Amino acid sequence: TVEDLGSKGYRALGVARSEDDGATWRLLGILPMFDPPRDDSKQTIDLANAKGVRVKMITGDDTAIARETARQLGLGTNIIPAAEAFPKDMDPDHVPPAIAEAIEKADGFARVFPEHKYAIVKALQERGHLVAMTGDGVNDAPALKQADCGTAVSGATDAARGAAALILTAPGLSVINNAIDEARRIFGRITSYTTYRVALTMDIMFLVVLSTLFFGFKPLTAIMIVVLAVLNDAPIMTIAYDNTEVAKQPIRWQLPRVLGVSSVLGLFSVVQSFGLLIVGFEILSSPAEQQIFQLFSRTELQAVMFLQIVLGGHFLLYNTRTARWFFLPPFPSLPLNAALWGTNLLAILMCAQGWLVPKLSWTTIGWVVAYTVAWVFDMDIIKRATYKVIDRTAGWQAKLGHIVTQPLKP
Asked: What is the rounded CA–CA span in Å between residue 19 and residue 25?
């Protein structure tokens, strides 16, 4: 009867009576108790699965109850009793490979003890998984501490709260999906900032070095470099408020990918700036072109380079903020757009009025703006191609891979 009730998700309490001080007992009956999952549990698990997060149940309940509960929640029914999975003398810090593989394949675990919870988390981590764990009791504390993201639920004990990295204040687990989305947005913003910063630093550094080596010309004065730093700070700070795409699958910090994309964008930013510098010297060598572009001196060429680096550097944010085309959603946030266009307009006014930099005609400013805007589209094409190559999704790589993996014909 107890097993039958367990298969339906009921816990059973046996009630007996003794009339000889416990020497013998007479069973009076069985009291079934039902502790159903929260109404939002299945939806929470389904949403987590859709985000690429696999959910495993860990419970001290009987195996039959665990299987029925897992079935109701759509977790799967491969529930392993802890007594069968873990030998009594097993070191939880060194789970044997066979047991670790079984843990990875299991949908859940029943009749677990605190050391089992810790061993499950440790085994999954050693197999390359990032593990989050939820719990509320003292016996959950070791596993919460070991997990990459230990989460104490609402009403948890002080021990669980102290061991956890994240504490939920609202009942239920549905807020976890919001935390996953927000974490991925933050990760996207960090990646955007890193890519942008590396590319822009390469641009300024190589422009100054190459200009000095090849032309003996300083493209930026000391005051220009100071103003550049100030103007760059405003858009950079607003990256924290940008609308970032939420990744559909779990993400990890892939430093070679970030450095690869930022280095390519940085290289072509140098091409953009140094190319304009070469064009500027060509204009200065031709009186006819000087009249067309209204550029007459090397000091004005310095102002041109200052304006190009400000505009090109800020527009580069549109390229680095997403791996998609920059004109597709999610669109830049209002704070980012306001800071970017505000600093760009300020730089244009500085050049037009001669504030801290040599004065430029509106004709020259117009040519620089047109040149820089055209490069925004070029940089996005370069970015998309770089991501495809790095992520091994480029068409030529797929075709080459197909050829290489074809069996040889006799």
From this structure: 8
Model confidence at 400: pLDDT above 60: no
Give the residues across from 167 on adjacent strands: 152
pLDDT of the residue at 226:
95
- Give the type of residue at 10: Y
Could you write out the DSSP letters of every residue in 109-147?
EES--HHHHHHHHHHHHHTT---EEEE-SGGGHHHHHHS
CA distances from 309 to 4, 226, 238, 306, 348 (A): 74, 13, 19, 5, 12
Q: H helices within 216-252, ranges in order? A: 222-237
Contact 120, 137 (CB under 8 A): no
For the chain, how long is the longest CA-to-CA vector?
Answer: 120
Judged by DSSP in three states, 212 sits in helix
Closest alpha carbon to 208 in 302, 285, 316: 302
The whole-angstrom separation of Cα 406 and Cα 130 is: 35
Burial of 395 (0-12, 13-18, 19+ CB in 10 A): exposed
Residue with the bigger pLDDT between 409 and 280: it is 280
DSSP for residue 323: S
- Please name every residue paired with 134 in a beta bridge, in sequence order, or none if there are none: 151
Can you tell me the distance from the alpha carbon of 341 to that of 106, in angstroms, rounded to the nearest whole number?
A: 53
What are the pLDDT digits (tens) for 92-134? 899 999 999 999 999 999 999 989 999 999 999 999 999 999 9
Place of tokens 């085994």: 123
Closest CA to 123 of 145, 98, 142, 88: 98
Angle 188-194-195 from CA coordinates, rounded to 5°: 90
Q: Which of 327, 315, 317, 324 is nearest to 238 (CA)?
A: 317
Q: Quote the CA–CA distance of 62 and 111 in Å, as a whole number.
A: 6
Q: Are strands 10-17 and 26-34 parallel, antiparallel or unpaired?
A: antiparallel
- The angle formed by the CA atoms of residues 301, 304 and 308, to the nearest 5 degrees, is 145
Helix (H, G, I), strand (E, B) or coil at 68: helix
Burial 318-334 (b: 16+ CB within 10 A, else e): bbbbbbeebeeeeebbe
If one counts every other C-beta atom within 10 angstroms of the C-beta of residue 97, the result is 10
pLDDT mean across residues, the chain: 92
- Which residue(s) pair with 14 in the sheet? 30
Q: Backbone phi, then psi, for 132, in 5-degree steps?
A: -110, 145
Cis peptide bond prior to 330, omega within 30° of 0: yes
